[in-house]
Description:
The complex is a heterodimer of chains A (406) and B (279). With 406 residues, chain A is α/β, with parallel strands linked by helices. Chain A has helices at 33-48, 50-64, 74-80, 99-112, 126-138, 148-153, 155-163, 178-191, 209-217, 219-232, 247-253, 282-285, 323-330, 341-355, 361-373, 395-402, and strands at residues 19-20, 23-27, 70-72, 84-88, 117-122, 142-147, 167-171, 196-198, 238-242, 263-271, 287-291, 293-298, 335-340, 382-386.
Amino acid sequence: MNEPLKPNSFRSGPDEDGLFGIFGGRFVAETLMPLILELQEAWEWAKGDAGFRAELEHLNAHYTGRPSPLYFAERLTEELGGAKIYFKRDELNHTGSHKINNCLGQILLARKMGKTRIIAETGAGQHGVASATLAARFGLPCVIYMGATDVERQAPNVFRMRLLGAEVKPVSAGHGTLKDAMNEALRDWVTNVDSTYYMIGTAAGPHPYPELVREFQSVIGREAREQIMAAEGKLPDMLVAAVGGGSNAIGLFHPFLDDPDVAMVGVEAGGKGLEGEEHCASLTAGRPGVLHGNRTYLLQDDDGQIKEGHSISAGLDYPGIGPEHSWLKESGRVEYVPILDREAVDAFQLLTRTEGIIPALEPAHALAEVVKRAPTMGRDKIIVMNLCGRGDKDVQSVANYLGMEV
Amino acid sequence: MTARMDTRFADLKAEGRPALVTYFMGGDPDYETALAIMKALPGAGADVIELGMPFSDPMADGPAIQKAGRRALDGGQTLEKTLLMAKAFRENDDETPIVLMGYYNPIHSFGVERFLDAALDAGIDGLIVVDLPPEMDVELCNPAVEKGINFIRLATPTTDDKRLPAVLANTSGFVYYVSMTGITGSAIVDTDKVEAAVKRIKGHTDLPICVGFGVKTAEHARIIGRAADGVVVGTAIVNQIAGSLDADGRASADTVESVATMVRGLASGIAAARLAQAG
């Protein structure tokens, strides 16, 4: 016989062209291409540079407050009566979500590249707040593009960004949500390519963004791995995380991808149901296409026009998904399921009352899936869920949904 | 390659003037009006037609072309209809080169092979696809060139001498020089810099160089046309269409003629480009 094939790894992507299987790539205008290549050089340098890593680790520890705890949700576990439920509590990070993990890494890259101005897109405002926070910390001017609809439904975050000194530009094109904000950020970037660093908020966009965002977010999974081994002496049976663009999910999943006994579930926004148009379940209900620099699953019509999604959660309201998730879906390594607005709001209330934690609506989607799965699993099984953001920003949305006055 | 493009640029060279390349959006504001505009363009002085393929998320376009795409899509335009429109135009004009311009996803969705066959059948001479840099040539550029359709590349101020050979490698028909780092419809450029850039690119290729982004008036066309082999006007034409619509956004009796009048003005600027230089 010939030599056996090398063991297949789910952790080796992307290849040198930025591809995960057929997904990913560099679908950008020529004006941006030299900059994308320059970013790639800076990223290759950063990966190998001990000083870069040390500075990132220092800021992660002393500015963000890492490691975030891995918390055993005892009351919720009792309530659901099945698998033990642990939360990776990235909602306790400075700025209130996992987004800062990525922004810290990227702003160090921007500084290395000599860029003097930061732009970012934001949906729920969590990435916008994290970007504005670090722009303030590093003394750089910052412009945040945010869909006009989101500006309205995430008013507290808009105010926070402005307090932090960022300029928030509402985008009214399209339906005024995350996709439109990303288009506008790309238009700014192409115009101000010399001075500006585009801080993409999720593990999507042209190569090398999906890879570098994943690496900066993988601190979540690396910590969770050590913490669960310390707490339980074994790996978890299942990981669950919400996917909008997919950065918190890939951050949790990636360090476990080559552990075949760890099942993984990504939870998409099912909105008002997949039978209609009002959802954002690109992996469950979309098909592969090209948008915002990468090939990935997209919600699109028969003519290849991108659809507007819907979710109660502004952070999941994006008709695409990071390309690595598309590949993990097609390879069968990760299962992706939709959760409805209603189910997410129920889970939001459940967690608030059983554990005294108000989650963001994004992880409330992941929690709704945990609520379905945990009771079907034995009490000796372990689920780790990424509690990637806190819910202060969503109190108004939930009140509106429930018909309550704040 | 289809012969129309090379023939057209050779004829213009003999004539001693640059090409007027006109962009408009397929299906804006509706199929019939857009087809009538397309048919009127050559008579008004357009030498090459860029036919926009509308896309929901035009990342490299300014507000004018964004809105034109939205009008077209709201009017029911699809990639299939844009190809039909070109085919209908070809029934009466087998000489004016047609270049399809847009973004990759509608083509990706249509299917690359099927698209190229339909494009050849419709008499398309070239493609400009904004979000396909040379790094992605395997997607559409290589298959298009194999079928004999020109793949026209954008070169930009950020395309330096080191990168230029990669950008020019599989380019044919002409090179589209983007006069600025920015989106379509931005303010007029520093014309001296544009002239220098055109000369720089000419050092790397014998292909005609057409300059676009920011060319709005006959005077701009005249100045840019001194150095370039062609001048691309898009946003100004799209704005002319938008300005001619009635209160409900529908075409008026004046729409086609107002575009033709404007293009005639641009053509006079083009005709004056080399005269001015001689004088």
